[in-house]
Amino acid sequence: MEPPHLPPIGLRIAVGAGRAVNAVVKGDGPAVVLVHGLPGCGYDWSPLGDALAARGFRTLAYDRIGYGYSDGRSDDDFTIAANARELLALLASQDLHDVTLVGWSYGAPVAIEAAGRDGSRIARLVLIGGAGPLESMGARPPAALSKLMFSGPVLAWMKVVPPAGRAVQEAMSREAFSGEPPAWWLTQLAANLGSPHSLESFAGENARFEDGDAAVDPVALAQPILLFHGDDDRLVPLSSAQWIQSHARHAELVVVEGGSHMLPITHAALLADRIASFARASDAPAPD
Q1: Residue 156: CB partners within 8 Å, gap ≥ 6?
Q2: Could you list the pLDDT tens digit for every one of the 288 residues in the chain?
Q3: Is 90 helix (H, G, I), strand (E, B) or coil?
Q4: Parallel, antiparallel, or unpaired for β 31-35 and 99-104?
Q5: How many CB atoms sit inside 10 A of residue 12's CB?
Q6: How many CB atoms sit inside 10 A of residue 234's CB?
Q7: CATH number for the domain that contains residue 246
Q8: 270-285 burial, b if ≥16 CB within 10 A, otherwise e?
Q9: How far is CA 89 from its chain centroid?
Q10: How many folded domains does the chain comprise?
Q11: Is residue 1 part of a domain?
């Protein structure tokens, strides 16, 4: 059986140090940059990207280094900080300004870190199912067990034993969706994890996160923040979004009733409407 493939490759964008990412651009208008989670790829954003494009925005969804069609990470720097540097290089390479930066899951701390390092191109943040520091995440599997489950050897074994790999991917997806995932998602996940560097990146980023890798404290950010979190999110607890909201200067939390971790897919229209209003309202001049 032929292995699944990701949708066609998009725009190749250099992000420094001889590396480039793959990006899919849709629509026309103010810039919205979409940062996926762990694992993931830019194509995961398709429902929300289409909805935002239909509302008059230009969306850029990219495969982070190590995933999808993007280059691998040769220096083993599987950190939030490295991802943030590459995100800032992408914004500079495309000369984007007044950006609405949207981070999903692991992409949320990447977005926070990027804005904390250099917010000159970033006007506002949207964080969806955002992962806060470990202390905000409540009860989790022991770090040693999590590292073992997502270690290189285990992930490599799942890759060479396709039935085992598919079973794990399906179980992960049911947790992510808090129910049955759409068929296209399972095909796309298998294609992404079959990419040359995805399993190594997944294992490396997960291990660093379990060791306490975290973004800068959002209290340092001047940008307004809009948070979305499902009250049935089984991967990242609501307490994570509440922690971010309590530590940020200007943050609004929208709790989606019955929502899972996969809001950009299951609630794309709702998110697009709220993001469009948020982006346009924060463009308005402040009252005297």
Answers
A1: 199
A2: 577 999 999 999 999 889 999 999 999 999 999 999 999 999 999 999 999 999 999 999 999 999 999 999 989 999 999 999 999 999 999 999 999 999 999 999 999 999 999 999 999 999 999 999 988 887 554 444 345 455 666 666 556 556 667 888 898 899 999 999 999 999 999 999 989 999 899 989 998 998 899 999 999 899 999 999 999 999 999 999 999 999 999 999 999 999 999 999 999 999 999 999 999 996 644 433
A3: helix
A4: parallel
A5: 12
A6: 14
A7: 3.40.50.1820
A8: bbbebbbebbeebeee
A9: 17
A10: 1
A11: no
CA distance 142 to 177: 23
Domain residue limits at 132? 11-281
What are the structure tokens assigned to 115, written together? Answer: 């804005």
| Residue 286 is assigned to a structural domain of this protein | no
Evaluate whether residue 177 is within a structural domain: yes
70 secondary structure, DSSP code: S
Check if the beta carbon of residue 87 is closer than 8 Å to that of residue 20.
Answer: no
Residue 240: name the closest of 85, 116, 106 by CA. 106
Within a domain: residue 3? no
And the tokens for 160? 């060479």
Read off the tokens for 141.
């599997």
Structure tokens given for 20: 């480039």
Phi, psi of 257, deg, nearest 5 = -65, 125
Q: Are 82 and 17 in contact (CB under 8 A)?
A: no
* Cβ neighbours for 131, distance < 8 A, ≥ 6 positions apart: 37, 105, 106, 108, 109, 137, 209, 236, 240
Backbone angles phi, psi at 266, to 5 degrees: -80, -25
- Measured CA to CA, the distance from residue 174 to residue 119 in angstroms comes to 36
Q: What does the alpha-carbon distance between residue 218 and residue 215 come to, in Å, rounded to a whole number? A: 8
